[in-house]
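Sample intake sheet
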Amino acid sequence: MKRNAGRDADATRGRILAAATQEFARYGLGGARVDRIAERSGANKRMLYYYFKDKEGLFLASLEDRYSHIRGAEQELRLEHLAPREALRRLVGFTWNYYLEHPEFVTLLNSENLHKGRHMARSARVRPLHLPLLHMLGDILRRGAREGTFRRGIDPMQLYISIAAEGYFYLSNRYTLSRVFGRNLMTRRALREREAHITDTILNAVRREPA
C-alpha cells in the first residue's frame, strides 16, 4: 500500500510540475497563476503548496526539471564513442533541435534572466548538472587536439556558450529578426540553413589551422 501511495504522490507531483512548466512558458513568472496550474494538473492548491511551498518554488522546480532533461539527453548521445569532429557536430545539431522541440526551455530561461537568475542562485542542483557536460566537451576537445583536428587551449565552457547562443538568440528573437530582414526565419528551409550555419561556425572556430 505504501508503494502505491508513493507512486500516486510522484504522479501528482509530476502533473503539477508539467502544468506549471506550460504555465510559466506561456505567461512568465509574473503572469503565471497558481489557480490555472492547479486546474490543469487536476490537483488542488493545497497539494501544490505542499510539494513546492509557493509559486517561486514551483518556478525553480520547473527550471531544474528542464535543465535535468536536456543534460540527461546530452549524456545519451554517447559522444565519447565518436570521432571528435563528428561528436562536436552531433552536439551542435542536438542543441539546436532540442531548442526547436522544447520551446518551453527557451522561454523559461528568458523569464529567469529577467529576474537576473535569482531563483537559480538558490538551487543546489543546477550547477552539478552541468559538470558532466563540461567534462564531455572537454574530452572531445582534448581528443581533437591530440589528433591534430582541433586547436589547443579552447575553454569548454566558452565553446558551449557559443553553441547555445547561436541557436538561442535566433529563436528567442525570431519575431523581431523576421521583421527586420523581411524573411520568415521559421520555415523548414530557414531552420535547416540555420543549423548548417551554426555547425560550420562552431567547427571552423575549433579547427586547427595548417602549419
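Comment: The chain has a mean pLDDT of 94. The chain has two domains: 1-53, 55-206.
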